[in-house]
TrEMBL record:
Record InterPro entries: 4Fe4S_Fe-S-bd, 4Fe4S_Fe_S_CS, Cys_rich_dom, Helical_ferredxn, HmcF
Family matches, as Gene3D superfamilies: Alpha-helical ferredoxin
A Pfam cross-reference name: CCG
All copies of domain 4Fe-4S ferredoxin-type, residue ranges: 60-135
PROSITE patterns: 4FE4S_FER_1
A GO molecular function held by the record: metal ion binding
The protein, known as: Cysteine-rich domain-containing protein
Domain Cysteine-rich: 338-422
Keywords: 4Fe-4S, Electron transport, Iron, Iron-sulfur, Metal-binding, Transport
Amino acid sequence: MPEGTFCNKQPINTEEDLKSLLGDKGGAQYYEEMKHLDVDVPALAATLEKTCKARIRTWLEICAHCGMCADSCFLYRVSERDPKQVPAYKIQSTLGVIVKNKGNVSNEFMRHCVDVAWSQCTCCNRCGMYCPHGIDMGVMFSYLRGLLFSQGFVPWEMKIGSGMHRVYNAQMDVTEEDWVDTCEWMADEYGEEWPGLEIPVDKEDADIMYTLNAREPKHYPEDLAEAAILFHIAGENWTVPSTGWEQTSLAMFAGDWAACKKQVETVYSAIERLRPKRVVGTECGHAHRATVIEGPYWAGREDGLPPAPYIHYVEWLAEALRTGKIKIDPSKKIKEPVTLQDSCNYIRNHGLSNITREIMSYIAEDFREMAPNREHNYCCGGGGGFNGIGKYRHQRNEALKTKRDQILDTGCKLVVAPCHNCWDAIRDLEEEFEIGIRWTFLKPLILKMAIIPDHLKLQEDEDE
């Protein structure tokens, strides 16, 4: 069974192998090697026997091919309603064939499955809401990705992403030293403007432990500073862990379940070590899904819950506004029309739509809903890893059209997007279609309009 230097059945476990794979720019050699990668049929059959249990087999069997899931899929809608983009067809023609043939499929078929699994589904699971039999297509596509990953059939960027988690316990090469240095840097950088500002590391028994997306310390350290300032304004007793601070999981997008387990366990270990009363996660949808919704099951927790109450940033922010820990200056509310992007992973899959609208009620004078909205909203077009796979950039850009049209229909030029993948997709949407919009997380908006308590204001120089 020939395996390539880069494209093979072995996950990335060392920094040396990770850097080597990164050196294959764009995955040119990787994808060429994939064309010759053999399918280990006995191993795939054994995996199916062990993991493909009654639930998935029943879903594959009871699908009525009724087509009710078709219009629910934004990818079907932007592809001129191509029948091959109907969710039921996509899963039956990939996972269904693998299961029916007990893993006895060809290299060409597996590469076809890669294209379908990563460029024709974002695992947003909107289709599952409309299935009369309650079939969870997101779960089945995630399972398909896991089968493909186990055989080495996974997009180049996704193998890199899961390797990052295995090597650095983060989706990017941010070491523990890098992370702690960034915390100190941001506290110093903003400390002159905000008296007493701290980013406490490894503080035990705090009220809040805060976790992040690695892209923040790597590329947007000001996001960490903004979170710290808002905790400071609210008077919170909080901390970040030196290890276990990264709550995202590109491994989930890759289908690398072993890396998913490893990643979430680093977060849970930090919770158990520092004993916070609760944990607040950053403005990221899939990070919330990975640590709060899926994570307990990857970690084998029988109660299906993290070790401490774990909430999304929008939940903390709504609470802070509701209780008056953070107060909004009415004169600084958003005056222009503004709309809100509903993240699939914490709106559709965790029911937080009322929370985000409560926040908008405090900060916006002319809030306009997209249509549809809340749990019925369409995926931004970049979830499930779609944003980051260069091979499928054309397909991803086509997928952005649904969100483009939703935004245009509101008449708004400002879009609040409290999720990293949504933020990225809407940024790229503007770059691709130039419709004249702006996009933002919540933290910078709140900072611009929050009333600063007197004891946190800079004291004027006595000579002035």
